[in-house]
Amino acid sequence: MKKLLFCLFIFLTGFFVKSCDRNDGDWDDNIKLSKKIVNFDSNPNSITITTQTKNWWIDAISLNGNDVNLTVTNTTQQNFVIDNSEFKVERKDGNKIIINMTENNTNFERTIKIGLQNGNYFDGIKITQAK
């Protein structure tokens, strides 16, 4: 069920992003991520991504296609931490997203997708960590 909801979220995100190209009244980019795609090597890594606004929230995170439980964190707050054994996502001062990845000791790439929303605008960050 969670996977179906995440797939639906990704589909809708793509739909909304594509429909913004038509200039028909849909919401423009009101988050303005400094980076949307990140590639890490297998070592422990960290990146800080900034936004130009502070009204957004995280509505989904997946690790290798599996949804991460966000119900224990209020992702609309200006400061919070989502801690996982393989990564940490921290929102700081409302406009910074600090992402830390542990060393990848597996035999496969790790992928984290972070979905953001502000009103009817959806965006996201994709992080791929090499094996």
Summarize the structure in words.
The protein has one domain: Immunoglobulins (Immunoglobulin-like). 15% of the residues lie in helices and 40% in strands. The protein is built from one helix and nine strands; from the N terminus they run H-E-E-E-E-E-E-E-E-E. It has one helix at 2-20, and strands at residues 37-40, 45-50, 57-63, 66-67, 80-83, 87-92, 96-101, 110-118, 121-129.
Q: What would the keywords be for this entry?
A:
four-stranded antiparallel sheet; 131 residues; five-stranded mixed sheet; Immunoglobulin-like; mainly beta; globular
CATH superfamily: Immunoglobulins
Radius of gyration: 15 Å
Helix content: 10-25%
Number of helices: 1
Class of secondary structure makeup? mainly beta
* Mean pLDDT level: 88
Into how many domains do the coordinates divide?
1
Low confidence ranges: none
CATH fold label:
Immunoglobulin-like
Q: Would you identify the CATH architecture?
A: Sandwich
Strand content: 35-45%
